[in-house]
Amino acid sequence: MLVLTRKSNERVLIGDDIVVTVLEVRGDNSVRLGIHAPRDRRIQREEIVVDVASANREAAVDASPEAAAALARLLARPGN
Question: Domain of life of the organism in this record (predicted)?
Answer without folding.
Answer: Bacteria
